[in-house]
Structure formats: C-alpha cells, structure tokens
Specification:
- The protein is mainly beta.
- The protein has 1 helix and 10 strands, in the order ββββαββββββ.
- It has a single domain, classed as Sandwich (Immunoglobulin-like), CATH 2.60.40.
- The strands form 3 sheets. A 5-stranded antiparallel sheet has the order 3-4-5-8-7, with no helix packed on it. The chain has a 3-stranded antiparallel sheet with strand order 6-9-10, with no helix packed on it.
Length: about 180
C-alpha cells in the first residue's frame, strides 16, 4: 500500500496557511481511491503538489481571468486566419497561469489539456487550440502560459468561473474559483 499526501499553500497577503489532504491507493490488482473535496483557491493563490506532505513537486497559480487580451490574442483576433477565426469574441475568456517545477527531475509543463474552465452554472467552456507560452521548466524554474476558452455565454454575463487543473501524468488536482 502506498500513501501520497497532497498539500496546497494559500498565499494570503503575507501569511501562508497550509491544508493537507490524503489520498490512499492500494497496490493490489484492484485500486481504491478515497473521494476528496479540495477547497477552491482564488486568483493569485498557489496550489502546491507535494509528495509525503513535504517534498514539493510543482505548483499552479491562476494569475488573470477575463478579456484583457494579451498581444498574442490581439494578433490572432486581427488575423483573418488566426486561432479565433469564426469564434464569437464576446464568449472568449483568457486565462493566464503560472507553473513552477519545485522538485521534479524531469522538465515540467502544465499542459492546457489538463485545464477545464466552467461558468457559474457549472457549464464547461471549450478550450481553443491556441496557447501562448508552452515551456518545459527544469527544477527550480517557472513559466507563464495563457489559454483561451469559448464559454457557453458571453463573458460579460458570467459572474464567476471555476478552473480545474487535473494532471494525469504527475498527479494532482487543483481547483480555483474566481469572481468576474
């Protein structure tokens, strides 16, 4: 039987509060997982995945959510054959996040395929095929990435978004709730 502990670090002003949850899996032929509910983090709060509660592996922070287009998005909007061709600009939500490799030996990339974005009604947006910043980072390094999701309704009508990051390779689940 193996035991892995995940913990997240909430960054609130200058204080740090840690919460620990435990997931236990069986090494026998039938695997059993405990169901766990993570507390949602907010904008600018860092989720840290750690092995055994102390060995930091990587982190994810949602930095910005909205329609404050970065240069890449602006260029894609203006370009006739751009990544947003045929999409309703009013429904496109930009999500910028930071990821850091604390202790993974292999370079780490927080792939957008592990992100799901929901509106306040729990309806998922569809990620576009555009991503700005897709750098693998070695231990101790970090990078930023920006992705875009086409939401089920106009972004101006959304009061809150939820962002989930579920990494199926390294492991870990982080949940963010951000008021708009």
């Amino acid at each position: 039987m193996t035991e892995t502990e995940y913990y997240k670090s909430r960054l609130e002003t200058k204080e740090t509060t840690e919460t620990t949850t435990t997931e236990t899996t069986s090494s026998s032929s039938s695997s059993k997982k405990t169901n766990k509910k993570h507390e949602a983090l907010g904008l600018g709060e860092e989720y840290i995945l750690a092995k055994n509660g102390t060995e930091k592996m990587y982190s994810i922070t949602i930095d910005e959510v909205g329609q404050n287009w970065n240069q890449f998005a602006t260029e894609q909007m203006d370009y006739e054959e751009g990544a947003f061709k045929g999409l309703d600009k009013n429904k496109i939500l930009q999500i910028k996040y930071t990821y850091k490799n604390y202790g993974l030996e292999e370079p780490f990339l927080a792939n957008s395929q592990y992100l799901t974005v929901y509106d306040q009604n729990g309806k998922a947006g569809q990620l576009t095929n555009a991503q700005d910043g897709q750098n693998e980072v070695t231990e101790g390094k970090s990078s930023d990435s920006t992705v875009w999701a086409v939401m089920p309704e106009n972004v101006s009508d959304i009061t809150k978004v939820s962002v989930e990051f579920k990494d199926t390779i390294v492991g870990g689940e982080s949940f963010f709730e951000i008021p708009m």
